[in-house]
Amino acid sequence: MEADELLTLVADGDQKAFEELYAVVSGPVYGLVRRVLRDPAQSEEVAQEVLLELWRSAARFDPRRGSALSWVLTLAHRRAVDRVRSARAAGERERREARRARPPAFDQVLEEVEAGLERERVRRCLDRLTALQRQSLTLAYYDGYTYREVAERLSVPLGTVKTRMRDGLNRLRDCLGGEA
Amino acid sequence: MSPPGRLPRRGRLHSLAAPYALDALEPVERVRFERHLDGCDRCSAEVRNLAEDTVRLSRSTAEPAPAALRDRVLAAVRTTPQDPAPDPGRALRLPPHVWGGQPPARPRACRPRPLLVPYATATAAAALVVAALFAVQADRTRDELDTARDRAREIAHVLAAPDVRAAGGRDDRGRGIGVIASASTGRAVVTLSGYGDPAGGRVHQLWLMRPGAQPRSLGLLDGDTPLPASGLDRTATSLAVTVEPEGGSPRPTSRPVVQLALESVGFGE
User: Fold this and answer.
1) Contact at 8 Å (CB) between A38 and B63?
2) Residue-number span of the structural domain to which A176 is assigned
3) Which of A14, B110, B175, B225 could make a disulfide contact with A9, Cβ separation 3.0–4.6 Å?
4) Domains identified in chain A, total number
5) Are B97 and B121 found together in one domain?
6) B-interface mutation test, from A9, A20, A65, A113, most B Cβ less than 10 A away
7) In this structure, is residue B62 part of a structural domain?
8) Which structural domain, as residue segments, surrounds residue B30?
9) Structurally, how many domains does chain B consist of?
10) Taking CA atoms, what residue in A is nearest to B66?
11) What is the ipTM of this complex?
């Protein structure tokens, strides 16, 4: 069964459907959270919150507004980013020092991307973006930086980051195709 | 409701659609942008598309979740009640991920939480709201109390957040201000007591005070009726009440008659 259908059943309190839904979404959810947070223990904790929130809030899912997987991953991303920013705020001063000491490794995340068909496709499409588009997207999405922080890190104006993000997403859509 | 002077320019707000879809806005901007989305169908559609695009980036990150996670989640599901479906009229106008749009959890939320705590706390919060309401309304008639009770129920529902907390103060003349707030959802209920109505048709206006930013209006207070407020950002340091001309002002025009720090309810990062 597709995630959309399962989520609708889960909204009616169907625990069996939730187990199936878990099988479909837990990998994408955990992987995304892990990409943003890096730390395995924290990732597991946030993933658990997200998956449990799916159970609790399944009734809020509205299939007319997008696919279930998008909905789930959007939630997971939001929670992961919120957590990484809280953690980051705590160690901000240290990092500012470290940043002064050496330039940030912008494309680090791309290098860390492992082999695999989907990974390879996303990577190929990211490679086709301009460096600024790619860095704007990956620093925000995979590393959880705000667009202000991205602008600061890349030493470009705020407006530039906003347009690069939009252009980058559009080009990514063309490259990865219509299917979500 | 933003006072007229503080409505952000449409073009500038609109350019935030991509950063918003990437979760790359600061909490304050996020709240402001979501308020803008609420009344802009075209923007909601655009954000929806951009959100679908950002999800494509997650195609490269999937990895098997630890087996222990499955056990824990499925066990929790067996004992966790589900939330009711939201009011459909409102849900329809919102973009796909606004419902998960609370500001970031505070660092202290990092420690693992027992799964059922939010519910226990929500009940406690409800009790708090009701107590706060009746404390200032003891001299009311039965009918008025019933109305207040209905309102309390409504507010308790709004405030059913895991981190809801209360604070208040009273001066030597017995006048006071109380707040019940949840930093994670950015919601609060504020009650003023003993200040009466200002003379000459003027009103009490409630402001959110933030460092390095203009005070933001949270609305007009009607006597000691509790005022619900939402969209409170975490940098907020205090609430202030000023006396303003009828209908309120875009900016405070007088010194506050009372001010209450928000630190003890989880704000002021």
Assistant:
1) no
2) 103-180
3) A14
4) 2
5) no
6) A65
7) yes
8) 4-101
9) 2
10) A44
11) 0.84
Alpha helices by DSSP H, listed for chain A, are 3-11, 15-37, 40-57, 68-90, 92-101, 108-112, 117-127, 131-141, 147-154, 158-176
Please indicate whether residue B219 or residue B113 has the higher confidence score (pLDDT): B219
Residues A90 and A1 in one domain: yes
DSSP state of B250: S
Q: How far is A27 from chain B (nearest CA, A)?
A: 5
Q: Give me the residue label for tokens 């695009």.
A: B53
Write the pLDDT tens digit of every residue in A111-146. 344 436 778 888 899 999 999 999 999 999 999 999
Which domain-ending residue is among A99, A120, A140? A99
Phi, psi at B169, each rounded to 5°: -150, 155
B79: contact with A, CB 8 A cutoff:
no
CA gap B32, B27 in Å, rounded: 9
For residue B123 the two structure tokens come to 């009940």
pLDDT in tens, B154-206: 566 556 777 777 777 777 677 778 888 888 888 888 888 888 888 888 888 99
Structure tokens at B159: 């405030």
